[in-house]
Amino acid sequence: MDSAFIIEKSVVIVTVFAITMIMAMYSTWAERKVAAFLQDRVGPNRAGWGGLLQPLADGMKLFAKEEFEPNTPNKFLFFVGPAIAMSTALMTSAVIPWGDQLEVFGRTVQLQATDIDVSLLYIFGVVSVGVYGIMIGGWASNNKFSLMGAVRAASQMVSYEIAMGLSMIALLMMTGTLSLKEISMQQSGMDWNVFYQPLGFLIFLICAFAETNRTPFDLAECESELIGGYHTEYSSMKMGFYLFAEYANMFISSTVIAVLYFGGYNYPGMSWAVENWGVNAANIIGIGALFIKLCFFIFFFMWVRWTIPRFRYDQLMHLGWKILIPLSIVNIIITGICILAFK
Amino acid sequence: MSPILITFYCLAAITLATAFLTIYSKNPIHSAIYLVLCFFSIAGHYLLFNAQFLAIVHIIVYSGAIMILFLFTIMLMNLNKENEVHKPRITRLGAIVVFVVTSIVLTTIFINSKPIAGEYPTTGEDFQSIKVLGKILLNEYMVPFEFASILLLVAMIGVVLLSKKEKPGK
């Protein structure tokens, strides 16, 4: 392992980290702007042009606010909760292929922090661990509303993980690999997986909403019943971490949807661009294409949030266990039959 | 010492420490969290063998599913020190006897067993890749694999039956 390799990987990792942070930051701004647009308002427009400095101002405010700790015997766990939520939100981006490759100083740089054989399972693992941040934080708050919020959030995430995993299995049967890099490569041109797996995509999208605790599945933060949900007792930057983790998760799930179903960094005519414009130019356009796709999904998350009201809790569980899971099993069977019939 | 050996010792220390803390901590939630950490360090051991699939599946199944349900139940049961059942002295004595006998049995097995750590022939096949793993599971170990899944199915149906007891007056 030469030192250039370590430098290369460090640069990629730090860049991905920075981009995730910036995207999460500006998602908060975009959320307000989209909400304002949908409700016929202006939205933040005081700090900077069009309110572009608003996220920085919010961050400053959260850092500078007084830290208030509830009377809890579990000070350490209270502190660990937001840390787990934030780190798991950031860890997922390690296996996402942001582009194919770049040639910098005569080296071929893979635009991915690591290409492990089981990267899709890795994402699942990290997502399932993310529940701990919510549960530990909610329990350590020593407040029954926080606990109920945490239990709701966790049970919702656990239930929807099953349907998500099953919809994933149908996709895997088609691609035959768990590596996100190979899945992206298979979709070159307009050969996107969404055309073969429309039902699987729909299930995955719904589950992504539930996993990120966004409306219409944000029962964990049901203000009228549960105050603020699992982060009721949190203040200052710990609270900021929970909110930030939600936006980081949203960014990552949009990216995963774009990579799995919408071709990732591929765009029509990419191989032509590689031949005529060179590897670097073609791949920079590819990164741009991936960002356009994922920004659309981030917008979609917000669009849904400000359009559809929240489910009732029993409706949520009904949808998860009695509709999505059987549907995804049917999807697996259909995929199997199609593979047998056409290949 | 090679970096891998150092990593192994650190992981082993974490595994043992968290396993002991699981037993010794008074608070059941702390116990559960230590157990989660223990599972994570075991996944680290798998990664040292380069068994990525096993490590990730271990995390998904044990830390991501089973322990979360455990934490759930413990949190909702609201276990306090006051309503903990006090065990009589004879139970403790019995526990000690059982523990000693089990450890004697395990140590004798450990001493008498002859660990086979022969050289494996390199076939050039990557046994970490899921493709090879799947082929082996569904060819050589097909029957045990299917039996395991039937066992899980039976357990699942049993749980549903147990939790859906007939309501009185029906």
UniProtKB/TrEMBL annotation, chain A:
Give the source's domain of life in one word. Answer: Bacteria
Query: Which transformation does this protein catalyse, written as a reaction?
Result: a quinone + NADH + 5 H(+)(in) = a quinol + NAD(+) + 4 H(+)(out)
Positions of transmembrane segments: 6-26, 76-99, 119-141, 162-180, 192-210, 241-262, 282-303, 323-342
- Asked if the keyword NAD belongs to this entry, the reply reads yes
**Entry annotated with the keyword Translocase:** yes
Location comes to: Cell membrane; Membrane
Q: Name one GO molecular function term.
A: NADH dehydrogenase (quinone) (non-electrogenic) activity
What does UniProt give as the signal peptide span? none
Matching entries from Pfam families are given as: NADHdh
User: What's its EC?
Assistant: 7.1.1.-
> Which coarse location class describes where this protein primarily resides?
membrane
Membrane topology term reads:
Multi-pass membrane protein
Q: Which UniProt keywords apply?
A: Cell membrane, Membrane, NAD, Oxidoreductase, Quinone, Translocase, Transmembrane, Transmembrane helix, Ubiquinone
Q: Which InterPro entries match?
A: NADH_UbQ_OxRdtase_su1/FPO, NADH_UbQ_OxRdtase_su1_CS
Q: What NCBIfam families does the record tag this protein with?
A: PRK06076.1-2 (NF004741)
Query: Which protein family is named in the record?
Result: Belongs to the complex I subunit 1 family.
State the function annotated in the UniProt record. NDH-1 shuttles electrons from NADH, via FMN and iron-sulfur (Fe-S) centers, to quinones in the respiratory chain. The immediate electron acceptor for the enzyme in this species is believed to be ubiquinone. Couples the redox reaction to proton translocation (for every two electrons transferred, four hydrogen ions are translocated across the cytoplasmic membrane), and thus conserves the redox energy in a proton gradient. This subunit may bind ubiquinone.
**Quaternary assembly:** NDH-1 is composed of 14 different subunits. Subunits NuoA, H, J, K, L, M, N constitute the membrane sector of the complex.
What name does this protein carry?
NADH-quinone oxidoreductase subunit H
Gene this protein is translated from: nuoH
From TrEMBL, chain B:
Supply the enzyme class, top level: translocase
| Membrane topology of this protein | Multi-pass membrane protein
* Domain of life of the native organism: Bacteria
Q: Which residues cross the membrane?
A: 6-24, 31-49, 55-78, 90-111, 141-162
Q: Name one Pfam family in it.
A: Oxidored_q3
Write out the annotated subcellular location: Cell membrane
Question: What's the EC number here?
Answer: 7.1.1.-
For this UniProt record, give its keywords in alphabetical order, as a comma-separated list.
Cell membrane, Membrane, NAD, Quinone, Transmembrane, Transmembrane helix
Q: Which reaction does it catalyse?
A: a quinone + NADH + 5 H(+)(in) = a quinol + NAD(+) + 4 H(+)(out)
Q: Which family does it belong to?
A: Belongs to the complex I subunit 6 family.
Q: What does this protein do?
A: NDH-1 shuttles electrons from NADH, via FMN and iron-sulfur (Fe-S) centers, to quinones in the respiratory chain. Couples the redox reaction to proton translocation (for every two electrons transferred, four hydrogen ions are translocated across the cytoplasmic membrane), and thus conserves the redox energy in a proton gradient.
The name under which this protein is listed is NADH-quinone oxidoreductase subunit J
Query: What is the taxonomic lineage of the source species?
Result: Bacteria, Pseudomonadati, Bacteroidota, Flavobacteriia, Flavobacteriales
